[in-house]
# Entry
Amino acid sequence: QVQLVESGGGLVQAGGSLRLSCAASGLTFSSDAMGWFRQAPGKGREFVACISGSGGRIYYTDSVKGRFTISRANAKNTVYLQMNSLKPEDTAVYYCATGVSPSYDSTSKEPSYYDYWGQGTQVTVSS
# Structure
């Protein structure tokens, strides 16, 4: 049974930083792509960042480039999202997701690529 558990969310002032973690179990973590998505109140789920199983392929949405960094520690079955220079518009519930990947270098910005989702962690950025 695949399980994803996010942690690290909270309340921070604009300009501050948070690091989200997503611990995975029940899958061959090192071969599967991981993604971070977010959903703000009244809005749909939005892609944030993703990383391939090898860690060699990474994508970000334009609004977080240069501020957020996705990484993974395969030995710990954990993916991270380091968020710096946070803005009020980053306020959302953040979800991690994983899917069975055809190769170690595969990943995707599309939610439909991912088979499993965590419960989410709230990030609130005050102005």
